Amino acid sequence: MIDGNNRVVALHHAGGCGFAGGDNAGVRMNEIMAALSAQGAGGLAVKRLNLSFASSKLSLDARLDPGDAGPIDPPAQEFNLTIADDDGEILDLTLPPGSFSANGAGTRWTYMDREGAIGGLTKVTLVAKESNSEIKVLVIGKGMELAGANRPSIDVGLAIGSLEFTASGVPCQHTANKAACRH
After folding, report:
1. Closest CA to 8 of 32, 27, 29
2. Which of 20, 109, 112, 119 has the CB geometry, 3.0–4.6 Å to 126, for a possible disulfide?
3. Alpha carbon distance 107, 33 (integer Å)
4. Cα 120 to chain center, whole Å?
5. DSSP letters of 157-180?
6. CA-CA-CA-CA torsion sign (168, 137, 132, 161)
């Protein structure tokens, strides 16, 4: 539910929704997600997302803005990546706290696992710009079931601890073996 100031004040997750009695009883999900990503934590911009169906590989290059939510601490927090389209969830992968190692300056955090034991994730790198005003996110994975990503657009979600970032309606170009998505 969005209030008069375009702020998300409630979400309905299960069951049906009844008529609210107001003029705007129906709200599109992309409007809710846009308003949700605009408050609290900043936004998520997908620079490039490549999904290879033939080789089952994923590569993501994104930028997130923590906004007013404050600094992040990946070594102490859970990291979650979700990818979905109109048909539903394609990926939902979570790295537990303690998965990232930090550089000496505390501005670069890396997770590496050549085997991809957690859902096929082989590398996740987070790089903070000055004062955590922007975080560069690079994700690489292999051995993933990605064929469900066959719609004209997808939604990408990242969570670090309790901070959630969403990019909705990221347009994709498809070939028989891959999808290339850019926002």
Report:
1. 32
2. 109
3. 29
4. 16
5. EEEETTEEEEEEEEEEEE-SSEEE
6. positive
Distances (CA, A) of 110 to 32, 73, 121: 32, 12, 12
Q: Which amino acid is it at 17?
A: C
DSSP H or E run through 37: helix 29-37
The C-alpha atoms of residue 84 and residue 29 are separated, in whole angstroms, by 13
- Fold of the domain spanning 42-181: Immunoglobulin-like (2.60.40)
Q: Which residues of 86-105 are buried (b: 16+ CB within 10 A; e: fewer)?
A: eeeebbebebeeebbeeeee
Q: Which two tokens stand for residue 133?
A: 């005003």
- 112 Cβ partners below 8 Å, 6+ apart? 122, 123
> Long-range contacts: 67-70, Cβ < 8 Å, 24+?
67/40, 67/41, 67/42, 67/43, 68/40, 68/41, 68/42, 69/40, 69/41, 69/42, 69/163, 70/132
Spell out the domain ranges in the chain.
1-39, 42-181
Report the candidate in 127, 131, 164, 130 with the shortest Cα–Cα distance to residue 43.
164
Range of weakest confidence among 29-38, 49-58, 118-127, 131-140: 29-38
| Lowest pLDDT segment from 9-13, 149-153, 161-165 | 9-13
